[in-house]
């Protein structure tokens, strides 16, 4: 499949979801790569403040008034004044693939100086299988010029469907506030020319800045939680979504890749503001990770939705004692799924619609 | 720690183990990097055929006669006419770190054209901790210019001791015979500038061509099995060692890294010969991998030796039914440990020497 071929085929199957464009240069800089696609922009701030999308882009724009109007009594599950609101775009999309990117991320260049088409690389990652059951030392075996190495079991070479593709960042690395404070000048200049599957059973810190996923496979679990205004925590929206997504992908037999593509992350957010948002997350996380490492989903959970509802129950049972916040979060996870099923009724498998007692 | 600093400090703590030098150019090509170190050369072929080591190298050379003389009735545990004999060098070494390399691997160049000091990179990998419990998306957080990313739990940032460093190959990739036959012209030209920890619970295909390890931590499990003359299988020596090493490192809380350094693998071995050696391994492996994925070692196994003896029992119990070969292999795993303890008596922890009933 040629590069242009892959993207041409998929043009109608992709939405680009962008939370809150503050930087008007952002879309201009991405014009060559984004103009052929449909954009869903979710503004997290004051709904009376409009934004001006440059000519030529095909887009939908939503603000808080739209979220309230569309979700009604369920609108509380979407974070207010926080980029976590991006998941409202995931909910509204009707496409198979989502690419989401932050407005301070620009086109990076590869070591040869060529501009990187991030979306195209994400689609390549999503369109080729993942290999979560065994590590391939030459990285993604489905990339051109490489393969499975000696000793890789043949029965595992078919791979599994890829649920998500996590891209990286040149220039400003995605550090937490303490690391930002300690290393204010550190820049990521290392271009690692690799894509790899994160093994089954292994958690990772999923960053929402440069992320793509298969909405049909795992859209319903890509809820970015409750962050921002009125919440005790921030900057854990993507992490929360990533941990939920990874344990559910592991359970459902999907793979998650990380590595290429890179974007150019232009500016570090304020570490003092970040520290205030993060500090509860930093210590709560010490209990969240053992929780997610030990999550076990029953085999009756055969869809992303069922897994997510089951996970919400376990969150309430096990994390409610860490802080009352997790009870509220668990309730909103359920609200999110209700909203998902309302707006995406066809996604629920047909067997669920059978009346009780029907033959399987 | 400067590059030269690290290697200078460690000069007395490293042995380079080379199985069977057929190519006289090999040592000349590595002279600048290997001359400061002690070499242990283990010849696998006809003991009456000598080899000529060029002037200036500090080396010990062993052939089959030496193996028989030194190990006596235990010498059957060392493979005959196969590069698996390299583990005899691991047994005899008294150093903390081992670097082992094949004679068809030469000095590779990084993308800037600089010759890669493979041993130096291996030592850097071994001297910095591993992070097997959580995946860091910017790869080895202990490398210069990088760190743990946002969302990496702080309690896991100390890492664990690194047991092994698995290096890669430019030019000829390490493919099995079927892949060699299907892709005879494929060359690895991709220099991936990364080192990473293979997560806990994940197996990988360990190649012995370019490998280093901490002999104090996991030397006793680096047994390369029974291959070559008189055995039904070949080319699974390093794989076997790798699977044993990984499950035992996971149990003991050590880490395993893969990635840099690269060597230049000059020539592909004959795929027809390889197919003959490999074919039993290719289907046996389908039972070996589930076995290794389910190995569980009791907490009483607190040393590499104890783990390895326990593993040999499980091999006999679970794999003996796959083929009689695995019963023989299990017996030789025990012989190997006996040989190890004979030649390395001080490695056994002191508490083992206490008579029964003594206070702990």
UniProtKB/TrEMBL annotation, chains A, B:
It is an enzyme of class 5 (isomerase). It is found in: Golgi apparatus. The keyword Nucleus does not apply. InterPro entries: Nucleotide-diphossugar_trans, RGP, RGP_fam. GO terms for biological process: cell wall organization; plant-type cell wall organization or biogenesis; UDP-L-arabinose metabolic process. Its EC number is 5.4.99.30. GO terms for molecular function: UDP-arabinopyranose mutase activity. It catalyses: UDP-beta-L-arabinofuranose = UDP-beta-L-arabinopyranose. Glycans are attached at residue 150. This is UDP-arabinopyranose mutase. It comes from Vigna angularis var. angularis. The gene is Vigan.02G275100.
């Amino acid at each position: 499949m040629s590069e242009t071929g892959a993207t041409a085929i998929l043009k109608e199957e992709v939405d680009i979801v962008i939370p809150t464009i503050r930087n008007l240069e952002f879309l201009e800089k991405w014009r060559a790569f984004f103009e052929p696609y449909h954009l869903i922009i979710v503004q997290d701030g004051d709904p009376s403040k409009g934004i001006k999308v440059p000519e030529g882009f095909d887009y939908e724009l939503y603000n808080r008034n739209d979220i309230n109007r569309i979700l009604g009594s369920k609108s509380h599950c979407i974070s207010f004044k926080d980029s976590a609101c991006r998941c409202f775009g995931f909910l509204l999309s009707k496409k198979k693939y989502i690419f989401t990117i932050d407005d301070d991320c620009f086109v990076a260049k590869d070591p040869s100086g060529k501009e990187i088409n991030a979306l195209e690389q994400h689609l390549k990652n999503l369109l080729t299988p993942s290999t979560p059951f065994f590590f391939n030392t030459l990285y993604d075996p489905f990339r051109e010029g490489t393969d499975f190495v000696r000793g890789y079991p043949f029965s595992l070479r078919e791979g599994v469907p890829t649920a998500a593709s996590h891209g990286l960042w040149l220039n400003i690395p995605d550090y937490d506030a303490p690391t930002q404070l300690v290393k204010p000048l550190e820049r990521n200049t290392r271009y690692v020319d690799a894509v790899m599957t994160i093994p089954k059973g292994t958690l990772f810190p999923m960053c929402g800045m440069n992320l793509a996923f298969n909405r049909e496979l795992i859209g319903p679990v890509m809820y970015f939680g409750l962050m921002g205004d009125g919440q005790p925590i921030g900057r854990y929206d993507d992490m929360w979504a990533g941990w939920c997504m990874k344990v559910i992908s592991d359970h459902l037999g999907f793979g998650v890749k990380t590595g290429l593509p890179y974007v150019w992350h232009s500016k570090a957010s304020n570490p003092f503001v970040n520290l205030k948002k993060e500090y509860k997350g930093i210590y709560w996380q010490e209990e969240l990770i053992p929780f997610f490492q030990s999550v076990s989903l029953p085999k009756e959970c055969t869809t992303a939705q069922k897994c997510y509802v089951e996970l919400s129950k376990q969150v309430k049972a096990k994390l409610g004692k860490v802080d009352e916040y997790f009870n509220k979060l668990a309730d909103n996870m359920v609200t999110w799924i209700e909203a998902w099923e309302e707006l995406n009724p066809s996604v629920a498998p047909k067997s669920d619609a059978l009346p009780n007692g029907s033959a399987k």
